[in-house]
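Late entry, evening session. Most of the bench is empty. Finally got around to the prediction I had been postponing all week. Sequence below, unchanged from the version circulated by S.P.
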Amino acid sequence: MNINDMLSEEAFLINFDGTSKKQVLEELSRLAEAKLGINSRTLLENLTKREKLGSTAVGNGIAIPHANVAIIDRPFVFVSTLVNGLDFNSTDDLPVDIIFLLIAPDNKGSEHLQALALISRLLRNKELTTKLRGCKSAESALAVISQSIREEAA
């Protein structure tokens, strides 16, 4: 499993000027609906339920909200960078400005966990997160992620 296989240029929301966690999750859910045919309202409800269990903010301005969906056969990732950080109830109290939304198949729990681990490992790279914060387009963000993965593999 490779993060590049879960991403595409249509899966990015770069420099989004969101004003709330809900608004950002709504926009990412709409992106998922457009790309995958997932009902955005249902996805948002699932993401909101997950957030109520505990924040998906992992620290350092990063959140990895995630949900399982029945109609897909492999994991997909949607990425947003925010103009201004938002409160995600992070344990380090830092505002979140990088969000990797993971949507995984409902019946493949191990793939969901593998994808979460890959994303978490990738986002520990401070150079990557710094570069992502400076990206102005989906194309540049995808290139930064791809380059980081290549360098990690080398």
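Two things to note before I forget:
The mean pLDDT is 92.
The chain has one domain: 3-153.
Will write this up properly tomorrow.
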